[in-house]
Amino acid sequence: MILKFEMYVPQLDKNRRIHIYVPDEYEKSGKKYPVLYMFDGHNLFEDSEATYGKSWNLANKIKETGKDLIVVGIECSHEGNQRLAEYTPFPYADSDFALLVDALGKETMDFIVDTLKPYIDKRFPTKPEREFTWIGGSSCGGSMALFAIQDYNKYFAKAICLSPFIRPYYDYMLINAWHTQIEEPTSLYISWGALEGPGKHAFIQETVMITEIANGLMEHGVNVRFHVKEEGMHCEADWEQEAPVYLKFLVN
């Protein structure tokens, strides 16, 4: 079932809508569940809520694959360029959008680990340990998952990073931000498609940057699973089709 509620985010001084998937029988099953925290929660479950009218259809995909987990989706801001700000840990100038983007990614992550996770663990039958606490997202949310698996590594054992929004500055900043201790086990699933950008050059550039980041993480002991999609595009429909693969990565 899907649950929704508003929650105050003290780190951003704003209210934010939370979208949660829980197994239908969770109150009676007696089970405890791992938890996957995800960005862009409004795009995960229902087409009527999704920004472009197409969701990941994730609840149905979880049921089809028979995986037991709870998914907590955090809705982003829909004001101006605030989504970009909330989903980046590094300030930057974006020539594509002709704007300067503030960095509120750390505040977003602090909300997840300091405010949201304790709330979820108190009210739902979770497995609160690091081993069973995961994070994921696509596009800018995928980039945040990359950031989280290193700078907030003590909280998250696995991350799924789909079609990450990465520019050369981001590649450089992530590579030069490896200053935290990576705990074992830590696993990363990262995927991208050949048809996401304008032509083969964009795909090659993205492949190079992701490979550089992944190589650095592997040197720090992270187990990295690559998934390159030869016809993959940057859209919810593709991320829906990918669900059986990343759900198997999370829940064996």
Features:
about 250 residues, 8-stranded mixed beta sheet, Rossmann fold, two-stranded antiparallel sheet, alpha/beta
Report on this model:
With 252 residues, the chain is α/β, with parallel strands linked by helices. The protein has a single domain (2-250), classed as Rossmann fold (3-Layer(aba) Sandwich), CATH 3.40.50.1820. 36% of the residues lie in helices and 24% in strands. The chain has an 8-stranded mixed sheet with strand order 1-2-4-3-7-8-9-10, sandwiched between helices. A two-stranded antiparallel ribbon has the order 5-6. α6 runs parallel beside α7 (200-219). The model has no long low-confidence stretch (mean pLDDT 90).
Assign the structural class, choosing from mainly alpha, mainly beta, alpha/beta, alpha+beta, or little secondary structure.
alpha/beta
SSE succession: EEHEHEHEEHEHEHEHEHH
What is the distance, rounded to the nearest whole angstrom, between the alpha carbons of the first and last residues?
22 Å
- Return the CATH architecture: 3-Layer(aba) Sandwich
Approximately how much helix is present in the residues? 25-40%
Outline the biggest β-sheet.
Answer: 8 strands, mixed
Brief write-up:
By secondary structure, the protein is α/β, with parallel strands linked by helices.
